[in-house]
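# step 3/5: fold
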Amino acid sequence: MAKRRLFLTFIVACLGVGPGIKVLSSQTTSIQAPPDTGKFIIQTVITKARENDKIKKEKLIYKRTYSVENLNDKEQVTDQEKKEVVIIELGGQERMIEKNGKSVKPENQGKASKTKIDLINVLEAVLKVDEFNVAKIDIMGDRPYYVINFKPKPNQNDKGGDVEDIIVRSEGVMYVDIEKFYIKKISAWMTRPYSRAGGLFNLSRANIEMAEEEFEGIIVMRSVTIIDKYWSILKGGTVFEKQTYEYKDYQLIQK
């Protein structure tokens, strides 16, 4: 604990905290960071994530459960539309073993739904269109985290791709581990609607919650939750749903 406090003091000093620094509590310290600090942190997170992904593919087997639940206007679950359980093998190969409560035949095990969120791709898009504010340093579970607010730079136009066009309409906050530069958690939400295909698809809401953690020194995904509401001519009306990815049963394979 004493070493972590010393490390935190060093980090705060390196960020150029001015005389206006204020300790909000024993667990939170507000800071005044140089303007490009947030951008540098995200760039470092992306670099570390790429390195970590290689290690994860080489050494880990784990399980991913993907579910889609329909919601009512009070955000209560009305029914479950889909549930898939997938094993991620070494090398990143996927094998679906269960769909909607039933075992999947071997010849169909490669037909799982594609994941909607690729963290590195999202962060690269955020880096292009957003500005960052390193608001404070929080201590959670005896570890220090940068708390970074992000929102679109002024006068941003559509970029011609779903990911960037949704990000340019969103803002949020992320917690970045100071020592290992991974995202402990991130929350983002749309602030204005998104439309494509001449109005045949209209997204009015998209909230994302994501969390990572450590397993045997490797950064792994814990969960991703997406709540979205959209109107689509292909769906025949409005869809209000919660999509959830849960990751568990990590196994370290020693070669």
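# step 4/5: annotate
Confidence is low (pLDDT under 50) at residues 15-26.
# step 5/5: archive (pending)
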